[in-house]
Design goal:
It is built from 17 helices and twelve strands. Helix 3 links the parallel strand 2 and strand 3. It is globular, with a radius of gyration of 21 Å. The two termini are 42 Å apart. By secondary structure, the protein is α/β, with parallel strands linked by helices. The protein has a seven-stranded parallel sheet, with helices on both faces.
Length: 387
């Protein structure tokens, strides 16, 4: 019954997409969305706010499936509708350009890519190779997904990024443009975050670091509570506060233990922590593993410690790794929490990795002028819309 419902849904979406292809597009109507239309975040958010602030001639509209997102975006003074509302459906049929960070459900599944330019901002370049398989051993990067990706116009952070992502998606290189990520402008503009301003004042005698690992097998791994209690005790001794922001697939595994720590703050409140680029610039150091945030944090020009404690397992039995992860490292590799803590303390005292980290940044994120959103806008306006 579920398979039949999926087939019916696909037929209805294909029918709607055919109809929207017949409807004339409205010049300067641009739609935005992110993360399956559930969050107001990521590259789409930063480009959306840039457009609203700097290009009033563009009718910029955010589409979502969440009423809470509608309230949040409208409270900021911007246009936002649910994708299933009459206005949401009409905008999807009329849009000149659409901006996404993941896939067709970020904005609306009825967008006709033959008539509307769909710009894929994506959600990061990472060490992990994304070579996952489902429970039956089938490759998650299906032909259907590849065909969809080939129809996008891609914004890239560097030529190296194009090499990587064009290889994964099989999207033609001529559909990639080197602009930089809009969200990484925040490392230059440093937006004020009231929650973090207050939080850090409370422990202003401490250094502040953030731990942001990727997920393991979509959150199916267990948490070692005893190990984290030991880490918490060491952080207290070293006068270091650590925000622990797990991947959303992992968060459920940690919630039962949130009251167990003193110097570890679990980032569970989505209102405060969902948009990491609104507060990453506050931290003195990042701990990560294979996540794209490690490469983005290069733009902060502050120390990074890599903690790939399960590297061989991850390489062979999880997402896999690209060669550049080890060939062009963003920071020192550590395989135990003891090694992590020693490197954290050393790098907070003296940043001995600055030169090597800068080489990595220039490879993956060469722009450091805070004008990535501007480059995306100019690329779309002057090139993509004329193709």
């Amino acid at each position: 019954m579920i398979k039949m419902n999926e087939k019916i849904k696909d037929v209805l979406i294909n029918l709607a997409t055919g109809i929207t292809g017949l409807i004339p597009k409205k010049k300067n109507l641009w739609l935005f969305g992110a993360w399956q239309a559930r969050l107001y975040a990521d590259n789409s958010k930063y480009l959306f706010e840039y457009i609203n602030s700097n290009h009033q001639e563009i009718n910029a509209v955010w589409l979502t499936r969440e009423k809470s997102v509608v309230a949040e975006v409208r409270a900021r003074g911007y246009k936002c509708y649910t994708m299933s509302s009459l206005k949401g459906l009409w905008f999807a049929a009329r849009a000149e350009a659409v901006f996404e960070t993941e896939g067709d459900w970020d904005v609306s599944p009825i967008i006709n890519k033959n008539k509307t330019k769909v710009i894929q901002l994506w959600h990061g370049i990472a060490g992990k190779a994304a070579s996952w398989k489902d429970d039956k051993g089938n490759d998650l990067w299906s032909e259907k997904v590849a065909k969809r990706f080939q129809a996008y116009y891609w914004m890239a952070s560097s030529d190296k990024y194009i090499d990587v992502l064009s290889g994964i998606t099989t999207a033609p290189r001529e559909r990639f443009y080197v602009t930089g990520y809009p969200r990484n402008d925040s490392f230059v503009t440093k937006p004020k975050n009231e929650y973090f301003e207050k939080l850090m004042v409370q422990s202003n005698q401490c250094k502040w670091i953030i731990y942001m690992p990727t997920h393991r097998n979509f959150g199916k791994e267990t948490i070692n509570l005893g190990e984290f209690k030991r880490v918490d005790a060491e952080l207290q001794k070293r006068k270091i506060m650590m925000v622990y922001k797990p991947h959303f697939h992992e968060l459920k595994n940690l919630l039962p233990y949130e009251g167990e720590f003193h110097n570890i703050i679990l980032a569970k409140d989505q209102k405060k922590y969902a948009d990491v680029y609104s507060y990453l610039h506050y931290f003195d150091l990042l701990i990560s593993d294979y996540s794209s945030v490690a490469y983005d944090f290069l733009c902060a020009k502050r120390p990074i410690v890599l903690f790939p404690y399960d590297i061989e397992h991850f390489r062979k039995a999880d997402a896999g790794l690209f060669d550049y992860y080890e060939e062009i490292p963003a920071g020192p590799f550590c395989y135990t929490w003891d090694e992590v803590l020693e490197n954290v303390s050393a790098l907070l005292e003296k940043d001995s990795w600055e030169e090597k980290r800068e080489f990595c940044r220039k490879t993956f994120h060469p722009f450091d002028d805070g004008k990535n959103s501007e480059r995306v806008y100019l690329t779309v306006k002057n090139d993509i819309l004329n193709r």
